[in-house]
Amino acid sequence: MENVFNILEERGYIEQMTHPQEIKELFGKESVPFYIGIDPTADSLHVGHFVSLMVASHLQKHGHKPIILVGGGTATIGDPSGKTDMRKCFHVKN
What is the per-residue pLDDT for 59? Predict the structure, then answer.
């Protein structure tokens, strides 16, 4: 089976990274868990979310394990401002 790293590279998903050879070797020899967090504060999903989900799809098809979170927890994870309060989320009204 082809290494998913090669597929991501061929499709233009990889622009730059550190330690590409080590990552390629890791993807080739074992199943790697990976995380994508989608911030729920936007009015809708956008192309950036779609690209992340496409990469996740390729990784999963090659035996890697996705952890994809959408919701409240992702509103505070990785906030560069150092805030500890959750940002206000967009809610769809019925």
Answer: 96
